[in-house]
Amino acid sequence: MQYKDLNPDFLEKFEAYDDHECVRRFETPEGVVGFVAVHNTNLGPAVGGCRMHAYASEEEALTDVLRLSRGMTYKNAVADLPLGGGKTVIIGNPYEADKKPIMQTVGQVVDSLEGQYITAEDSGTSEEDMVIVAQQTPYVTGLPPEKIEGSDYGELGGNPSPLTALGCYEGIKAAVAHRYKGERQLSDLTVAVQGIGAVGLELCKLLKQDGVKLIITDVSQDGLKRAQDILGDHVEIVAPDVIYEVQADIFAPCALGGVLNDETIERLKVDIIAGASNNQLLKEHHDQMLFEKNILYVPDYVINAGGIVCAGYELFRRSGVNSGHFELDRRSMVAHVERTGQAVTRILKMSKDKGIPPGAAADLLAEEKFLESKPANDTASDTTSEDPPSYCAAGGTTMVH
Ligand code: NAD
Fold first, then answer.
1. How far apart are the C-alpha atoms of 227 and 205, rounded to whole Å?
2. Ligand 1: which of 78, 219, 221, 314 to mutate, judged by most atoms within 8 Å of the beta carbon?
3. CA atoms 229, 174, 332, 49: torsion sign
4. 2-140+376-399: which CATH architecture?
5. Left if phi > 0, otherwise alpha if psi is -120 to 50, otherwise beta: which for 265?
6. Which residues are catalytic?
7. Ligand 1: nearest atom to the Cα of 160
8. pLDDT digits 0-9 by tens, 204-239
9. How far apart are CA 360 and CA 286, in angstroms?
10. Ligand 1, atom nearest to 255 Cα
11. Options 2.30.30.110, 3.30.565.10, 3.30.70.2200, 3.40.50.720; which CATH number does 161-304+339-368 get?
């Protein structure tokens, strides 16, 4: 395995570069290239997933890792987690590659950062891949509960999607209260859900309990059939491209990024956009465009933070480092996710008061939190030791085999 840190002079050429603390290029013995970027660790160690994608070039992959790692700093800050932002990207087709040696290399590179960055699964990688990473480094979270050595950690590990859906549901309720000022209830509303995968289907189940009328779409016919079996006659199914122009009150993107763009924004008839997908805005100016069209956009990284809250709680419990002083049990974790509604309310109010789009308001709130915070080594330890907090295997229980 080879790696080198990229020089800030070189990184300055990338628009997505934002004085990242460290950007490391690595190469596996087989020649697969990837990058780890640590954006900011003022609030705590950087946490963010490991993405594998068939990028067209190293420049494209580097742009993505710079953008995504910065996004994680903002997401973790608004979610009130004592964590910074980082990300890994690997250039390659996740369905064709021999993942084992790649994941071993990822584990070694992550380990070389000595806890400055903690990785997790992301698109193109799986829990099983993280088990391979964990054979090389303790700095990994989001492991399958049964793979974590030690006592009863199961209540905090595992699939985060139902909790991401719960956070979205709370965020939707907050957005509805803000937009309609109590004059309309969820039971009066129609929600158009794009993508009924792990998060989208769970969100539909929660909304259905409130009597919401659902319009759903997916590119998977099997997925649609399964959803209809579960949701019953309550749903209307439309073709994937039609979802942008259905008569609904809320659009919930739960499939892809970049779905809010010049073309789709013109077609949308909804009052509110609130869903789980990452990077919904194709470009930053689409935040302003939605604001001017009086469509209330709930920033994606605020409403979909349930997954990172799960990963964070698992990490705090396994490491023994709990600078947020959280009760590290499932009930508290769920309550933390439910506070997504409060975060959404705060951001929408801030947007209204300052006359700025919600995405800009969320960024401002995040910056207030992480720019004004001292580096974690000064503040974050819960221990009495003078050593900085260690996310390494406290009590020897973190590594999986
Ligand atoms: P998933 O893969 O389980 O589901 C995505 C669904 O979207 C699939 O059913 C897929 O067939 C469908 N889809 C793909 N292209 C589509 C298209 N053009 N039109 C309609 N449907 C399409 O993924 P997920 O875990 O449910 O995540 C959904 C989104 O939420 C992703 O953007 C993900 O990054 C984001 N997210 C997920 C979590 C989590 O906990 N799973 C956390 C934060 C953010």
1. 9
2. 219
3. positive
4. 3-Layer(aba) Sandwich (3.40)
5. alpha
6. 87
7. 40
8. 999 999 999 999 999 999 999 999 999 987 799 999
9. 11
10. 7
11. 3.40.50.720
- For residues 103 and 92, is the Cβ–Cβ distance under 8 A? no
| Confidence bin at 392 (pLDDT 50/70/90) | very low
Could you tell me the end-to-end alpha-carbon distance of the chain, in angstroms, rounded to an integer? 21
Distance 295 CA to ligand 1 centre (A): 23
Residue nearest (by alpha carbon) to ligand 1 atom 2: 197
Report CA dihedral (397, 148, 119, 49) to the nearest 10 degrees. -160
Per DSSP bridges, beta strands 33-40 and 84-91 are antiparallel
Question: Which residues, in sequence order, are bridge partners of residue 395?
Answer: none
* Distance in Å, CA 371 to ligand 1 centroid: 31
**What is the residue extent of each domain of the chain?**
2-140+376-399, 161-304+339-368
Helices (H), 137-197: 161-180
* Ligand 1 centroid distance, CA of 291 (Å): 25
Question: Does the fold of domain 161-304+339-368 match that of domain 2-140+376-399?
Answer: yes
Ligand 1 atom nearest residue 275's Cα: 30
pTM reported for the whole predicted model:
0.90
